[in-house]
Amino acid sequence: MFTAVAVAGVPSAQPLITSKTSTTTSSNSRARHHHFNPRASLGAPPPPPPRQESLKSNPLSAITNLLWGKSLPPQLLISIARTIWTSTWQLMMSQLAPSDSSGRYTRPTSKFRALGFSRENSTALHLYVGIPCPWAHRTLIVRALKGLEKVIPVSVASPGVDGSWEFRDFGGVNGDGRRIISSGRDGANGCRNLREVYGLRRGGFDGRATVPMLWDVESKEVVCNESYDIIQLFNSELNELAENPSLDLAPASLKGRIDEWNRIIYPNVNNGVYRCGFAQSQNAYDAAADDLFGTLDMLENHLESSRYLCGDVLTLADICLFTTLIRFDPVYNILFKCTKKKLLEYPNLQEYMRDIYQIPKIAATCNFEAIMDGYYKTLFPLNPGGILPVMPSGCEHEALSRPHSRESLSSSDRRMESFVA
């Protein structure tokens, strides 16, 4: 019979044979072990006393410890702080996200429309965008797919601490070495921020300086700041300058279906996530969440048998849906409280998003680090601490680049690679 005994100076794995002699040895060893004092033998110093916060090193902690020690703050203080914060939050939200009397977010309308745009009246165009903005993202995608990068330069602004769009240098290479869209300087006017650019137009400007914005370089005038007008213009009005003029993202035969999808997707998904995140009453939030997830359920069912929204052909409606879906799990699900389901829980929508992401040139328009920074570090009323969460693994480039099976839904073998160089 073998018994392993851990004693000082004897390895715990060493067996001691049970016999008369060994029993005595074991008893003596156990006796010595009983009186063994590890602290005395090792000379370990006593544990230090708890560190006291000094007024100089951490004044806030020192003051709170002085006032109520380790207890929670008094109820009166909590009530006062809550009242002040709630009032401040409502004030900031009224400027950031205007709402109606029910607390429902109402998106301001775009001031500059391109309905009467004529190529003859505008010979040099410049596009202003911000990477976090899904409305600006759709213009970058159509610009890339049509091959307009050389004729329509772009300046990429970053969100400033006050929520305005600023121009500053930023690296254009992602962590995995891919070339991606990134913020930089104003390449058309050399301005410090977008408000200065808007102010250059004749008569100035005192409204919201929003992205995307299409600028006439020669006349120094805003051509358009409505995203859907801009992508329509890029798709059909500049074909003589485009490298891929044959690509039509809004064919006449599908116009009715595209418009129908836009009427569903815009209020319930594109703007629906903002209606959730910017809701200023529980009823407004509940209604927005019901509309959002009811529409996502409907889209999930539709995409089970259709590769794109309008069948085999990628359209502007798909581009508009994609720029919301690509932000859903990393941003809207968390920050905007769109929590009923993650996009990952919609297998058809997830594969549909990956299908579009893998179309040449589209992945390069997706800068996930800038997207998350732009939301979590800028929307102070929604994230006062500025803590940036970890990117969900399913939203990283490697996961989005995995093979999908959407091609099997196409009735023809025409792929976007045939259109995009």
How would you describe this protein?
The chain is an alpha+beta fold and 421 residues long. The chain has 14 helices and 7 strands. It has helices at residues 20-34, 38-42, 59-68, 75-96, 134-146, 194-199, 227-236, 255-270, 272-277, 282-302, 316-335, 347-357, 368-376, 397-400; strands at 2-4, 15-17, 125-130, 154-159, 165-166, 213-216, 221-224. The chain has a 5-stranded mixed β-sheet. Strands 1-2 form a two-stranded antiparallel ribbon. A hairpin with a 4-residue loop joins β6 (213-216) and β7. The longest helix is centred in the first third of the chain and has 22 residues, at 75-96. The radius of gyration is 31 Å and the shape is globular.
- Derived from helix and strand composition plus strand pairing, the structural class reads alpha+beta
SS strand fraction: 5-15%
Q: Largest beta sheet: what is the strand line-up? A: 5-4-3-6-7
Helical segment tally? 14
**What low-confidence regions span 5 or more consecutive residues with pLDDT below 50?**
1-35, 413-421
Radius of gyration in whole Å, from Cα? 31 Å
Q: Report on the biggest sheet.
A: 5 strands, mixed
Please bin the fraction of helical residues. 25-40%
Question: What is the mean pLDDT?
Answer: 84
Topology pattern, helix = H, strand = E: EEHHHHEHEEHEEHHHHHHHH
State the total count of DSSP E strands: 7
- For the record, give the distance between the C-alpha atoms at the N and C termini, rounded to a whole number: 79 Å
